[in-house]
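Escalated from tier 1: 6-O-phosphono-beta-D-glucopyranose holo job.
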Amino acid sequence: MASFTLPRDFFFGAAASGPQTEGAYKAGGRIASVWDLWSDERLTDFHNCVGSYMGNDFYHRYEDDLRLLKSLGLDSYRTSIQWTRLVDQNGQLNPEGAAFYHRVFAAAREIGIEVFVNLYHFDMPAHLFLRGGWESREVVEAYAHYARLAFREFGQEVRCWFTFNEPIVEPDNRYRMGEWYPFVKNFTRGTNTQYNISLAHSLAVREFRLAQAEGLVRDNARIGLINCFAPPYTRENPTDADLEALRMTDGISNRWWLDLVTEGTLPADVLETLADRGVALETRPGDEAILAQGTVDWLGFNYYHPERVQAPARDTTEDGQPVFADPYVWPEAEINESRGWEIYPRGLYDFGMKIKNEYPGLEWFVSENGMGVEDEGKFRDASGQIQDDYRIDFVSRHLAEVAHAIEDGSPCRGYHYWAVIDNWSWAHAFKNRYGFVEVDLEHGLERREKKSAAWLRQVAQTHECKGE
Ligand code: BG6
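Tier 2 regenerated the structure:
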């Protein structure tokens, strides 16, 4: 394991989301989400046929789970409000849903855990999805309305707010690559959903500022955006075409959001290339003024792996969609075989330097980082505890890069590990386990600490690791 020392005022916590933890999918007036729609239609798409219904039962166990996080030395917890739980089919506040989140926030406050609240984690209400989802401006307005209700309902209880988690993922997974329901493979449709999500984000920021100006949101509250700004790299000694692939990959996945949240604009060079390549954005008069309101107070950076690209072998697909880059497999890459993701801790340092140099003054934190491992049961010792030394190694190496970036002047304020307690993860369901704490599916979802939990407790409390 790597050694590091983090600042005293650095926060240390856990990240999760409502749809991946709560379960109780029909309780308290919750309405169906797009994930329930997919699960109802094709449950076999989900690992072991475990659809979106169960989470890890946080809905019923939130008090115990929050105490468990506290006992691990953690000081903060990011989750998301489920749009489907807070708002009913007619766009009205669902009082039972609101009461649940009030209870969660109160329980956290009581034991000294700060709750970070995200408003959207890929979980659109099914009825809005069926009305066009992110392809519809009506849905963009519905999201802004939901955000308004949330800020006004919980504005005195929550200090750290976020509009979206990984807004690049639905455009990619649902519309460009066709991996998630409704399995569309159309670059232009994907880019238009990305554009509409950018408008939705900006409208939500406007709602936040309005509610704050009216005294309905705390004065010291902050709004941010969380994204997986996977640092892009290309091959050594790149050709011009490799560098062009890098520019567009970085432009669409990272600079798009970074410019939006710092300048309130979208990168002109990217929009120009998209237009040249026939990707028509459905813009409307007045959009620029909306986007201009999308600037935030700080950023969350979800980091699992870097993005390595090279010049594409062909410029378009058979059906005429533009291709801007092909994946590049670095010969020296270290791979997490369960997930197929490269392990490259240095990406955190590089992102830290990018922020310091190109977006000076912008504060950020690591909002997700973690290692998902399949079939962890094979690592149990005689007492039944999972011996996950690989997780200690992974996290310590990443934290060492964070410490390095801070030493070199990057304003990184904290670290949230993804899924301190195992949870459900979209089509992968419970395949890859991320937790420091196991959720035993065979024994009533019982929580059990893995070996790494003791290490985490030590690090979270002391902010340092002495290595081996
Ligand atoms: C992040 C998402 O990108 O990756 C989480 O924000 C997700 O929602 C996590 O659970 C891990 O993904 P997976 O597919 O490996 O379980």
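The chain is about 40% helix and 15% strand.
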